[in-house]
Amino acid sequence: MKVVEINDVHKIYHDTEVEVRAINGVTLSFEKGEFTVIVGPSGSGKTTLLNLIGGLDQPTNGEILVAGHRLSELRPSELIDFRMEHVGFVFQSYNLIPVLTASENVGFIMSLQKWPKEKRIARTNELLGSVGLSDRGNSRPSQLSGGQQQRVAVARALATRPEFILADEPTANLDSKSAEALLDIMEKLNRDEEMTFIFSTHDAKVMKRARRIITLEDGKVVSDETRTEN
Amino acid sequence: MTNFQLAWRNLWRNKRRTMITSASVFFAVFFALLMRSFQLGAYDRLFQNVIESYTGYMQLQEKDYLDDRILDNGFFPDTSLVRKIENDPNITEVLPRLESFALAAAGSRTQGVIVMGIDPKGEDRATGLGHRLVKYRLDDSAVNSLQHQDIPARTRKLIKVFSGYSYSGTARLMADLGIDEKDSAMILPAIRKFASIRNSYLDSSDTSGILIGNGLSEYLKAGLGDTIVLIGQGYHGASAAGRYRVKGIVNLPAPDIDNRIVYLIVTAAQQLYDAPGLVTSAVICLKRNDDNSLEKTRLRIGRFIKDPLVLVPWRKLNELLVNQMEADNKSGLILIGILYLVIAFGVFGTVLMMLAERRREFGMLISIGMQKRKLAGMISLELLFVGIIGVAAGIAVSLPPVFYAHYHPIRFTGQMARMYEDYGFDPVMPTLLPGGYYLWQTVVVLVILIIAVGFSARRIFRINIINSMRT
Question: Is the ipTM of this structure higher than 0.85?
Answer without folding.
Answer: yes
